[in-house]
């Protein structure tokens, strides 16, 4: 099956009416964008996050997706009337061919080498190095494909510093990738915590897929403090949290208590310009430093005093 894209140039006053009219006439989707995008005349719009922009482009283009069987001439005549346009507007057509969208999406994720012995391998790929420690990963709906710099930073730290028999808490586990890596690198007791039930589900599935010893790894909702405390001998040897700077600051007292004296805290999801603010909070309890940096993101690591 193929589809047709119908792109119509329109002024700001009629953009919304044209968009609504195309949907009423059977468009599968509608996109509004600047007709001058990519040129010197491109108009930048600004607004508060989550709020609509206060204005629309002076000259916009509305692109609608239709089934290829539509009568374009009839659609154009009808939408001109519905949107109360003075004249039939200029338009052009495009074609979208049928594709294997699953295969296309999967092609965006290839195996990622973290170190000489550690790889992330999507479930649909063969491992480039079967003898390596391979993290077989299906991201599902959770963050943590391994492609983001912060995930790479955390995995590199674990690969270099985790010792056989360490206990570890992964706070904000996402897909479970860091907790699973910890088990495969030799941790004895690991728990992953997340506020998103989908992340817990994806993490558990990924742990099974990686044949992790279920006596050494578990996942629980972030609010389940009793479960967290009873499953792992809190405080632990290592707490790793790959989330964002503001949550890391707010969670500092909780994460601090979860680390034993002399244990490690590993924090990422922090931009370079945010690093000092996060470091300032945690250095009350830890000897903190910037351990690594990648593409503008930093990894903070500390040893509890």
TrEMBL record:
Enzyme class, UniProt record, top EC level: transferase
Superkingdom, taxonomy of origin: Bacteria
UniProt-listed InterPro entries: Ribosomal_L11_MeTrfase_PrmA, Ribosomal_PrmA_MeTrfase, SAM-dependent_MTases_sf
Protein name: Ribosomal protein L11 methyltransferase
Keywords, alphabetical: Cytoplasm, Methyltransferase, Ribonucleoprotein, Ribosomal protein, S-adenosyl-L-methionine, Transferase
Family membership: Belongs to the methyltransferase superfamily. PrmA family.
GO molecular function: protein-lysine N-methyltransferase activity
Gene Ontology BP term (one): methylation
Cell location: Cytoplasm
Functional note: Methylates ribosomal protein L11.
TM stretches of this protein: none
GO cellular component assignments: cytosol; ribosome
UniProt entry tagged with the keyword S-adenosyl-L-methionine: yes
NCBIfam families in UniProt: prmA
Organism: Nitrosomonas cryotolerans ATCC 49181
The encoding gene: prmA
Residues involved in S-adenosyl-L-methionine binding: 151, 172, 194, 242
């Amino acid at each position: 099956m193929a589809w047709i894209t119908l792109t119509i140039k329109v002024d700001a006053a009629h953009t919304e009416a044209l968009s609504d009219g195309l949907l009423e006439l059977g468009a599968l989707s509608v996109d509004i964008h600047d007709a001058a995008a990519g040129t010197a005349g491109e108009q930048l719009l600004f607004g508060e996050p989550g709020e609509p922009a206060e204005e629309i482009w002076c000259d916009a283009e509305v692109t609608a997706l239709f089934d290829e069987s539509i009568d374009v001439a009839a659609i154009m005549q009808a939408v001109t009337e519905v949107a109360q346009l003075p004249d039939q507007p200029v338009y052009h057509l495009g074609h979208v061919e049928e594709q294997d969208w699953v295969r296309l999406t999967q092609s965006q994720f290839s195996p990622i080498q973290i170190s000489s012995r550690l790889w992330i391998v999507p479930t649909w790929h063969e491992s480039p190095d079967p003898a390596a420690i391979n993290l077989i990963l299906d991201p599902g709906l959770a963050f943590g494909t391994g492609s983001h710099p912060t995930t790479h930073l955390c995995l590199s730290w674990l690969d270099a510093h985790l010792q056989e028999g360490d206990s570890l808490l992964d706070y904000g586990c996402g897909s479970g990738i860091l907790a699973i890596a910890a088990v495969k690198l030799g941790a004895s007791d690991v728990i992953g915590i997340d506020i998103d039930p989908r992340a817990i589900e994806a993490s558990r599935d990924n742990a099974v897929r990686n044949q992790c010893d279920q006596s050494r790894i578990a996942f629980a909702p972030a609010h389940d403090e009793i479960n967290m405390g009873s499953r792992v001998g809190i405080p632990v040897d290592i707490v790793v949290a790959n989330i964002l700077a503001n949550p890391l600051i707010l969670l500092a007292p909780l994460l601090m208590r979860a680390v034993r004296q002399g244990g490690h805290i590993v924090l990422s999801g922090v931009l370079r310009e945010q690093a000092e603010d996060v470091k300032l909070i945690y250095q009350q309890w830890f000897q903190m430093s910037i351990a690594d940096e990648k593409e503008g993101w930093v990894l903070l690591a500390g040893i509890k005093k």
